[in-house]
Design goal:
single chain, mainly beta, 7-stranded mixed beta sheet, 4-stranded antiparallel beta sheet, 0% helix, 49% strand
Amino acid sequence: QVQLVESGGGLVQAGESLRLSCAASGRTFSSYAMGWFRQAPGKEREFVAVISWTVSNTYYADSVKGRFTISRDNAKNTAYLQMNSLKPEDTAVYYCAAADFIVDYASPNNYRYWGQGTQVTISS
């Protein structure tokens, strides 16, 4: 199994940037697709981005495309989410997740392992 720990969240103004990190341990990191999801209070968890077992394959939610970049460094067992041009509507708890396989990359049900989450708050 895989243990995931997010970090890098915080409070920033609209238009600024943050980079989230997801440190993984437990088994071979490169065997998993890594996803980022977010959840605001009272709302369902929503897909943000995913990166496949190979670093070159990435997919993004329409709401973040062009602003966010997902990446991974298998040698460091870490996934990242670079978030630029942040908007107030990006405010949420951000979770990283690992999937053994993918049927629908945008569905939380596809991901077996989850981190504890890190709060991202964007002020106007």
